[in-house]
Amino acid sequence: MKGSDMAQASPLHEEHVLLGASFSVDGTGVERPVDYAAASADSARLKDGALLADMGGMTSLLVSGHGCGDFVGAAMAGRRLAVGETAFEAALVGDGTVASIPLMARTGTEEFALWDLTPRGETLFAWLSFVIGIGREGFRPYEGVAVEDVSERLVPLCLCGAAAQRVLSDYLRDEERLPEEGRVADVRLDGRIATLVASLRLSGETHCYLVMVPPALARAVWRSLLSFGEVSPAPPSLMTAAIAGCLPWLAPASTLDRLELDAAFLARHGLVREGRDYIGARGLLD
User: Residues in domain GCVT N-terminal (predicted)?
Assistant: First the structure.
């Protein structure tokens, strides 16, 4: 996890420097670009083009092992996912307060990926690790489940805007297709670059993709995407602000403080399911 005294730089750091980026270090110790001197972008670009942001530093977790479906069903309050589906879901602690609200994807029968767009990723990781260790009288129901921080395995790029689908589709070969909204799929860009692509479910005509790229190829993919005239680089803060209108919970969740969101708000945005069969339900609903 992120815990060093030194700021963590993205594998794309040199690409940001070439674009004249200025940087800041956030509360989790991650260095992020805050603007680009060589290229300007604003949220209006979403309507006629696309924004591309390096979301490096975002917490990425992998939950796997025998029984992980039951574990995720208890630890995550949203709907139960089929393989290939994604959804933003709340993870609640026992008193009903929110640990975090990651994007979760079911990437296999016994495997889930979680990507946290908020700064609450370390809280989420610590809470899920705690739940896995819960036991009584020597019995641990989730003993076969593992949760790993895999944030450094892939570089997360977010491509969002009216042109995003067309731009990414230009890299597809043969019968390959991009995932539909609310789904995740393995996609080979140009038939050779293995990526994991999640299509975020947003309102309106805005297409938004989270493209997970191998670090060794991240610079090549970044440059290639920016070669499209309608694609502009954006700092992650601008990307987050741009999509926050479609994800109303994103702004209140962008804090490291204790987070309380009422049940009606969480239900209205599909972050919790009906019933009380998940951790924190009693504290949230009573």
Answer: 12-230
Angle (nearest 5°) at CA 146 between 79 and 80: 10
Q: Which two tokens stand for residue 14?
A: 């040199």
Confidence of residue 204 (pLDDT cuts 50, 70, 90): low
3 state SS for 123-153: HHHHHHHHHHCCCECCECCCCCEEEEECCCC
Helices vs. strands in the chain: H and E counts, helices first: 10, 15
Question: Would you call 159 helix, strand, or coil by DSSP?
Answer: strand
Residue 83 in any domain: the answer is yes
54 and 181 inside one domain? yes
136 and 101, same domain (yes or no): yes
Alpha-carbon gap, residue 269 to 47, rounded angstroms: 24
3-state secondary structure 18-69: HCCEEEEECCCCEEEEEEECCCCCCCCHHHHCEEEEECCCCEEEEEEECCHH
Assign 263 to helix, strand or coil. Answer: helix
pTM of the model: 0.92
User: Residue 243 to residues 28, 68, 218, 239, 281: CA-CA distances in angstroms?
Assistant: 21, 30, 23, 6, 28
How far apart are the C-alpha atoms of 111 and 267, rounded to whole Å? 25
Model confidence over 57-113: pLDDT tens digits?
A: 899 999 999 999 999 999 999 999 999 999 999 999 999 999 999 999 999 999 999
* Number of structural domains found in the chain: 2
Statement to judge: residues 163 and 227 lie in one domain: yes
What token pair was written down for 46?
């979403």
Q: Which domain holds residue 101?
A: 59-150+249-254+263-269
* Helix (H), strand (E) at residue 115: strand 111-116
The answer to the question of residue 277 being in a domain is no
| 31, 170: one domain | yes
